[in-house]
Amino acid sequence: KRKKRRIKFVVKLGDFLLIAGAVVFLLKSPFFNVKNFRVEGNSYYTDEEILVMGNCKTGGNIFIGIDTGDIRSRLEKDAYMSSVKVKRVLPDTVKIQLEERKQTAAIVYGEKYVVVDGDGVVLRKTGVMPEITVLKGLTISKLSVGEKVETEEKVLLRQTLQMLSVMEKSNM
């Protein structure tokens, strides 16, 4: 009986090791190398700009060579990104789903313009007048890209941004 148990144990162990080896070999095979990236939900940035920002490179193994968390964290650093999801699509595609903040208004800030979204989050500073609604007469007290702009006229800014959002939803 002991001999039969040992033989069964050795056979089961051998089967397990064989299956595990086959799985590892299959997962590391070129069949699972990333051949393309698919970007969805972007409007401000092009697909190529998104791939450069995320440091996305083809050729790596979809399981081992691609760090989806790193791609997500690189993209989330940009002020325009409100949410980023990176998923593996077997056998050879990585899908990047984005939700971008929309430029709603620009606040005059000296010789520059501060572009904000509907919540007042600063998207960028620019010296060129953007082709969106320009707000004048606001006094900016705190300004940091990726964070809400703080002005002395908080209520006026909030109401104006709400009005602009409603106008955009109504296609005005």
General description of the model:
The chain is α/β, with parallel strands linked by helices and 172 residues long. Helices cover 34% and strands 26% of the residues. The protein has helices at 2-27, 47-53, 68-76, 154-169; strands at residues 36-40, 81-89, 93-100, 105-109, 112-116, 122-126, 133-135, 140-142, 150-151. The strands form 3 sheets. Strands 6-5-4-7 form a 4-stranded mixed β-sheet, with no helix packed on it. The chain is elongated and about 90 Å long. It starts with a helix and ends with a helix. The mean pLDDT is 92.
Q: What structural class do the secondary elements suggest? A: alpha/beta
Largest sheet, spatial ordering of strands: 6-5-4-7
Major beta sheet summary: 4 strands, mixed
Q: Which geometry do the CA atoms define? A: elongated
Write down the Rg.
26 Å
The proportion of residues in beta strands is 25-35%
**Oligomerization state:** single chain
Low-confidence stretches: none
Q: Can you count the beta strands?
A: 9
What gap, in angstroms, lies between the N and C termini? 85 Å
